[in-house]
UniProtKB/TrEMBL annotation:
<feature type="transmembrane region" description="Helical">
    <location>
        <begin position="123"/>
        <end position="143"/>
    </location>
</feature>
<keyword id="KW-0812">Transmembrane</keyword>
<feature type="transmembrane region" description="Helical">
    <location>
        <begin position="35"/>
        <end position="54"/>
    </location>
</feature>
<feature type="transmembrane region" description="Helical">
    <location>
        <begin position="60"/>
        <end position="77"/>
    </location>
</feature>
<feature type="domain" description="MARVEL">
    <location>
        <begin position="28"/>
        <end position="147"/>
    </location>
</feature>
<keyword id="KW-0472">Membrane</keyword>
<dbReference type="InterPro" id="IPR008253">
    <property type="entry name" value="Marvel"/>
</dbReference>
<keyword id="KW-1133">Transmembrane helix</keyword>
<protein>
    <recommendedName>
        <fullName>MARVEL domain-containing protein</fullName>
    </recommendedName>
</protein>
<feature type="region of interest" description="Disordered">
    <location>
        <begin position="154"/>
        <end position="174"/>
    </location>
</feature>
<dbReference type="Pfam" id="PF01284">
    <property type="entry name" value="MARVEL"/>
</dbReference>
<dbReference type="InterPro" id="IPR050578">
    <property type="entry name" value="MARVEL-CKLF_proteins"/>
</dbReference>
<feature type="transmembrane region" description="Helical">
    <location>
        <begin position="98"/>
        <end position="117"/>
    </location>
</feature>
<feature type="compositionally biased region" description="Basic and acidic residues">
    <location>
        <begin position="154"/>
        <end position="168"/>
    </location>
</feature>
<dbReference type="GO" id="GO:0016020">
    <property type="term" value="C:membrane"/>
</dbReference>
Length: 174
């Protein structure tokens, strides 16, 4: 009953193959962005659980929304979903998500730590402060990418490189 079954070769996909399609790629998980997003997801979930069990449960929506947002961005970046929809200005959306999350987490964590005396509220506040650090590091990383993105007029580096190659080949034909 407790044994792990081997993946089936039949019609239904095995749980391992389903799990591998949901998890981000190994290359993305080892990148700085991947580590920050996995940290945001994990700490936001822990803060959500602590807020749900505390007297400060009125603030439970903050970690829940940030957990779902970080989970979506983790999924989008790891599956390269963001590259299919270039009209959304992903760097700007990610920057705004990180800035607002770090500010809101900081405020809610201060309230949870200083206004409530139960242990789970204090733990939720501590996890909120840790989440503030993760989101602040992420918005600094995104800020540098966004500055590069806006410096090139909203074009990706590959598009700029291709345009430079074309302009050089035009100059050679004269």
């Amino acid at each position: 009953m407790g044994d792990i079954e081997a993946p089936s070769s039949g019609g239904a996909p095995s749980s391992l193959s389903v799990l591998m399609t949901v998890l981000p790629s190994k290359e993305f998980c080892t990148s700085k962005k991947g580590i920050l997003l996995i940290g945001e997801v994990a700490v936001s979930f822990l803060a959500f659980v602590c807020f749900a069990a505390s007297l400060a449960s009125a603030f439970v929506t903050v970690p829940l929304i940030e957990f779902l947002g970080a989970l979506f961005i983790l999924f989008a970046y790891s599956t390269k979903f963001n590259e299919r929809f270039k009209g959304f200005l992903w760097p700007l959306m990610d920057f705004l998500r990180c800035v607002t999350a770090s500010i809101i987490y900081f405020i809610v964590s201060i309230i949870a730590v200083f206004n409530y005396r139960d242990g789970s509220s204090k733990a939720a506040g501590i996890f909120g402060f840790i989440a503030t650090i993760f989101f602040a590091l992420d918005f600094y990383k995104v800020f540098t990418e966004l500055a590069e993105f806006l410096k090139h007029g909203g074009e990706s580096r590959e598009e700029t490189t291709q345009q430079d190659k074309y302009s050089e080949s035009d100059d050679d034909s004269d």
